[in-house]
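Our platform keeps sequence and structure together, in a single record for each protein. Such a record has a labelled line for the sequence and another for the backbone structure tokens. This encoding replaces a full spatial description with a residue-level series of whole-number codes. Below, we set out a record of this kind in full and without editing:
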Amino acid sequence: MTFVVVLLVAFSILLDVIGQLCFKLGLDRLPELEGGFRLNAFWGQVFNAPLLWCGVGAYAVEFFVWLEALSRAPLSLLFPAAALGYCGVVLAGKLVLGETVSRRRWLGTLVITAGVMLVCIAST
């Protein structure tokens, strides 16, 4: 993988993590609806939530970054590397959202990271 491809994949992963954080924070900040779940009121809230739109924006930018990465490297290399986004989301959930992450989840995150490293090393 060239340095530019590594940067593109890293930026794509960062945008994915930012998008997920924005979605979670945006939804958590929506006021609770009285009388149970009412779809129309919920969608009205969603369309007026700036953090949710930031998440959509992050995903839109990520789409174009990903296309650029795909134009420079094989999918069979890039897609496993993009799995590091899962690791980033677990870490961001812990650091930013204060979520509890079990040992089993940390172990799974480590396994994903090791798998990505194996794929990247094997492709050189």
